[in-house]
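Reviewer 2 asked us to include a model.

Predict the structure of this chain.
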Amino acid sequence: RYVNGHAKKHYEDAQIPMTNHKKTEKQEKVQHTVCMDCSSYSTYCYRCDDFVVNDTKLGLVQKVREHLQNLENSAFTSDRHRKRKLLENSSLNSKLLKVNGSTAALCATGLRNLGNTCFMNAILQSLSNIQQFCCYFKELPAVELRNGKTAGRRTYHTRSQGDNNVSLVEEFRKTLCALWQGSQTAFSPESLFYVVWKIMPNFRGYQQQDAHEFMRYLLDHLHLELQGGFNGVSRSVILQENSSLPASNKCCINGASTVVTAIFGGILQNEVNCLICGTESRKFDPFLDLSLDIPSQFRNKRTKNQEGGPMCTLRDCLRSFTDLEELDETELYMCHKCKKKQKSTKKFWIQKLPKVLCLHLKRFHWTAYLRNKVDTYVEFPLRGLDMKCYLLEPENSGPESCLYDLAAVVVHHGSGVGSGHYTAYAAHEGRWFHFNDSTVTLTDEETVVKAKAYILFYVERQAKSGSDKL
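Predicted model (structure tokens):
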């Protein structure tokens, strides 16, 4: 089957003769759970965690692959020459638009859907428009995983490249470099998705996934890989050479600081008070994003223009997250003074704000039998989100350090986490764009503020502005 012009992958249990696969006599007779990738002519075995080849003794299938590869590489070369001529002749009229009466190039590049990968595309487009984060990766030195005759050419995966040879940082860098160049209308992130399959087993397959969960896994793995060094250069050297981030902004999560924690890292203070003896317990927790509940009293307010009842705002969600709360019977606090679990209260304070504040609205929740979506419209500001009232020590912050402006929004369209579709809105050089997989369109602020946000990316304001506060 084909979905949006892309081959839909099929899953099956089959006895497969594997010529390029580590195997024993027992394994030759065992059924392997495999996924066929029609776009790259490869087979992935879930049980063996490896790419395998289904071929004949004479290697006829491999010869077909090589022939198809030569044809496609030849097509890529001619297509590249054709595009270069088009650029030289300035005939890309389809990517021109009017801005204040003058003509400007759109330059935006979409991401092809590889089979329900809109969750990944929406996150990648959002991160690509967070300039400080994106520029860091684009300035990293390239890692050449292939050389010789195959340098720069697409290769078909016939076996695992090995965990030591795949680099999430490198493929993430390549994807970001491919965006906003204006040389193509859509880019295929299949190499990045291959690495995701290798190092993030939760995202193998082609079913719909949760965009927020993917974002957390992506940032965590980028953080871990950067800690281990990149291209033979230590992470600390890369961080010093490629960014102007002050040391005070480097929040450490799971080890040493990286650009991930320097940009997205903040610190929460968790206060728990025993209601019996009054003992107070304080704990500091680092975070990369804040997951906010939509208050229950607003859950029937589905659209911005719907009449009846107050409008739910982002401030309502932040207040619900930080307000004093009495823990229920299932969350009793183990009081060290009383030596047993007691009723208690809990409150969050933000001890340190990040450079980029990522706010996740908890739209999916479990009921007795299934996972439902909260489709409530939540009003959010484009500019001037003031976070000072949620700080532990607001008096120590500057007048502009607590103000945030919106950079990107991820939206989930549909009724359930396992279905529906993800798109993203993002600001680039003062203009707002709507990213819908391969399609990128220019939009306006009025359209953005009407979106039912799922993930919001706010960037700390650098210059003073007279914009209204939240």
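The chain has eleven helices and 26 strands. Residues 1-27, 86-104, 145-163, 230-250 have pLDDT under 50 and may be disordered. We have added this to the supplementary material.
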